[in-house]
Fold:
Amino acid sequence: MKLEDLYQRFDEDKRLFRNRAAKVEWITTNRFIEQYIQDGDTLVDVAAGTGAYAFRYAKKGVQVYAMDLLEKHVAKMRKKAPSGVSLRQADARDLTHVSAETADVTLLMGPLYHLKEDTDKKKAIDEAFRITKTGGVVFMAHISPRAVFVTESFLHNPEFLSSDLYDKTTYRPKELAFSFLSVKDMRKMVSEIDHERLHHFAADGLSELLTRSLEAFPEEKFQAWVDFHLHTCEEEHLLGFSNHLVYVARKG
Structure:
């Protein structure tokens, strides 16, 4: 499926805010970004979507360069971008318009979901590191095939377990609309890059699987769940069952 067609089905404006399960991803990811960004820093959001992360930090005094592959998303950003945000349509695999050592923090929060070939994923990662200052921090989001297997089985497709939509030996779902990287895959993808691994965290954990329960919780219980998730989101044995994960690296 072409990316343009996919995002006719998915409303990127609402993705991180459509329900409490999505809000867990938003809350968690910001908790980590905020550890590494300060007023006056430069943030490059490589696949900004419609600007959720980019605009949040622009309003906090960060110099922001935001871009996305889809003109549809860039057009939406132009309508609501805070003053001073630089916008551009761009492909994560080719950021030659951004000078090396530009960003204090780089966000690569979408391309690894969509690039099918490992060579293309590596190009996007290499570009993200190239534009980041030495000592700067790169956030790279990916989708776990383990979590997809579970959510497809229990939430999205009643016929999934009896279908041919996954490999019966590896239990890896077939990559149709999205591309997947396991925890091991992601770490191998960056293994040849000079960096320090700061975090590898579960952005939403089990939240998608528990969407209905989270929606029914009173606010106090939801906050307690968020606290539990934040407490456990870096536990190695739980990472693979998060739908979204984020690898955080300090460039060497």
User: Anything to note?
Assistant: The chain has one domain: 3-251. Residues 3-251 form a domain with the Rossmann fold fold (CATH 3.40.50.150). DSSP finds ten helices and seven strands in the chain.
